[in-house]
């Protein structure tokens, strides 16, 4: 019976392909056979809070360029920037500087339904001279070099999904360098375009890496009648979606006292009943203590 159904679908798809083309054919096939919902992943950028950092303006430019690229080119990602979230991220302890309290990071991320949190900063900026050109006719040229680093933290496990450094350089015309003589004075004319170029390359890598990670949501609270989720229309949840609930496994300690949250076995299922812009309500299909879960995932 199932083989006969598949044969009928194949014939229908072939006819539709000849008449309407691939896009319509794919939609008809999805309608007939069913298609797993594709949910977007919410992400957030750590605020640049070190006001004494001399390259803060360039860091801001890099963040703006990263966000613009993601919004323009990464259909599977949604940037979250609410004031309460940014305040929560600013309050996350960093001791020593640059070492984030990953458990606090995960807690904030779950409350706001984030899949990942991104932290970027200028790793290095310098000028240097080098001989370039055809051998025998090489001349000394002056360059400005910038290194941008980004870490992408997985909210579910607190692990680092990506730790990437991109370095690029641009030649500074001799007359420009002679007029300025200082890297800080080259920001608008030379450094800004370079940091945007680097940020666009970095954003492409981030989009590719996060596209490989499945969507995960989080239960923020529950009662006997309702399970509350920190995801809603913003990620594409719809009424009737079935989500699997997974327990929290035994945490693991890594280097430098880093604690990793390990997902446990499946402990239940829930069905989305109401969907709002940034959260949703679901009803339990089966399972107990669902609030004590590590995450929810779309049921295959």
Distance between the termini: 23 Å
Strand order of the largest sheet: 6-7-12-11-8-13
Strand content: 25-35%
Radius of gyration: 25 Å
What percent of residues adopt helix (DSSP H or I)?
Answer: 25-40%
What's the CATH H-level homologous superfamily of the largest domain? ABC-type transport auxiliary lipoprotein component
> pLDDT below 50 for ≥5 consecutive residues: which ranges?
1-36
Tell me the domain tally. 3
Structural class: alpha+beta
Largest β sheet strand count, sense and barrel closure: 6 strands, antiparallel
- Overall strand count: 13
Q: What is the CATH level 1 assignment of the largest domain?
A: Alpha Beta
Report the mean per-residue pLDDT as an integer.
82
Q: Briefly note the CATH topology name of the largest domain.
A: Rossmann fold
Q: What sequence of helices (H) and strands (E) makes up the elements?
A: HHEHEHHEEEHHEEEEEEEE
Write the layout of secondary structure elements.
Elements: H1 2-20, H2 22-33, E1 41-45, H3 56-73, E2 77-79, H4 83-90, H5 102-111, E3 114-132, E4 139-154, E5 160-172, H6 174-180, H7 187-211, E6 219-222, E7 227-229, E8 242-248, E9 252-253, E10 259-260, E11 263-275, E12 280-286, E13 293-298
Parallel strand pairs: 1-2, 1-3
Antiparallel strand pairs: 3-4, 4-5, 6-7, 7-12, 8-11, 8-13, 9-10, 11-12
Helix pairs in contact: 1-2, 3-7
Give structural notes.
This protein is an alpha+beta fold and 300 residues long. The protein folds into three domains: 2-33; 41-211, 3-Layer(aba) Sandwich (Rossmann fold), CATH 3.40.50; 219-298, Thrombin, subunit H (Beta Barrel). Helices cover 33% and strands 33% of the residues. The protein has helices spanning 2-20, 22-33, 56-73, 83-90, 102-111, 174-180, 187-211, and strands spanning 41-45, 77-79, 114-132, 139-154, 160-172, 219-222, 227-229, 242-248, 252-253, 259-260, 263-275, 280-286, 293-298. A six-stranded antiparallel β-sheet has the order 6-7-12-11-8-13, with no helix packed on it. Strands 2-1-3-4-5 form a five-stranded mixed β-sheet, with helices on both faces. A hairpin with a 4-residue loop joins strand 11 and strand 12. Helix 1 (2-20) packs antiparallel against helix 2 (22-33). It is elongated and about 80 Å long.
């Amino acid at each position: 019976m199932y083989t006969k159904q598949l044969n009928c679908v194949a014939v229908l798809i072939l006819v539709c392909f000849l008449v309407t083309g691939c896009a319509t054919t794919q939609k008809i096939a999805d309608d007939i056979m069913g298609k797993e919902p594709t949910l977007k992943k919410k992400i957030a950028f750590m605020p640049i809070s070190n006001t004494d950092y001399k390259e803060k303006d360039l860091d801001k430019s890099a963040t703006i360029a990263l966000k613009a690229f993601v919004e323009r080119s990464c259909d599977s990602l949604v940037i979250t920037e609410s004031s309460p979230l940014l305040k929560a991220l600013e309050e996350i302890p960093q001791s020593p500087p640059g070492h984030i309290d990953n458990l606090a990071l995960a807690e904030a991320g779950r409350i706001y339904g984030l899949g990942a949190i991104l932290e970027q900063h200028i790793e290095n900026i310098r000028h240097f001279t080098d001989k370039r050109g055809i051998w025998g006719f090489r001349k000394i040229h002056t360059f400005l070099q910038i290194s941008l680093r980004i870490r992408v933290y997985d909210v579910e496990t607190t692990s680092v999904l990506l730790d990437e450094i991109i370095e690029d350089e641009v030649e500074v015309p001799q007359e420009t360098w002679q007029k300025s003589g200082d890297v800080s004075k080259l920001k608008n004319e030379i450094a800004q375009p370079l940091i945007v170029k680097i940020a666009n390359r970095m954003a492409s890598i981030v989009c590719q890496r996060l596209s490989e990670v499945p969507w995960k949501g989080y239960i923020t609270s529950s009662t006997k009648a309702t399970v509350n989720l920190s995801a809603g229309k913003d990620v594409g949840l719809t009424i009737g979606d079935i989500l699997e609930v997974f327990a929290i496994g035994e945490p693991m300690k890594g280097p430098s006292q880093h604690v990793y949250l390990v997902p446990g076995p499946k402990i239940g299922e829930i069905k989305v009943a109401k969907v709002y812009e940034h959260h949703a309500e679901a009803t339990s299909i089966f399972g107990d203590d669902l609030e004590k879960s590590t995450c929810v995932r779309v049921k295959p």
